[in-house]
Amino acid sequence: MDFIPKSAAGLYFRKRIHKDLAPVSLDADMIRLLLAIDERKNLYQIAAEVEMDAAAFKKNLKKLLEQGLIEAVQKAAALVDQNFLPSLRMNLARLIGPIADIVVDDGITELQLDAAAIPMEQAAGLINRVALDIPEEDGRIRFKKSMIAILNQLKP
Length: 156
Known about the structure:
mainly alpha; two-stranded antiparallel ribbon; 54% helix; Arc Repressor Mutant, subunit A; 2 strands; 2 domains; elongated
């Protein structure tokens, strides 16, 4: 969803027990959002589930936070393993030659990633970015398919 920044994929919330017995005020949209909150779902998943327009979603999320009914949860992002980058470089080099290392490094820099700790959720974006430098469409498709197969093996 375009109204949520890229970092929203890593934002998680959970319901909080209100211990001070202070009254809370909820409307139908806030209740719908509160019911969808689950610490296993990121903000993108919750937004898609409740199907609210961007302004209403942000407003209701803010109200739930202000009333202390939800809280942010810190989750460590799953990272690709150490075989991902060598596989990416090798598969790309088969199609574009030795310049593949430069293309991969440029993609990492452009996406502002740390080569030593690439989040699993951004690996597909890196694959798509470096695939742009493959001149033939057929080669681009084969490259993406091979890398998606590797990504699927890495997922728990």
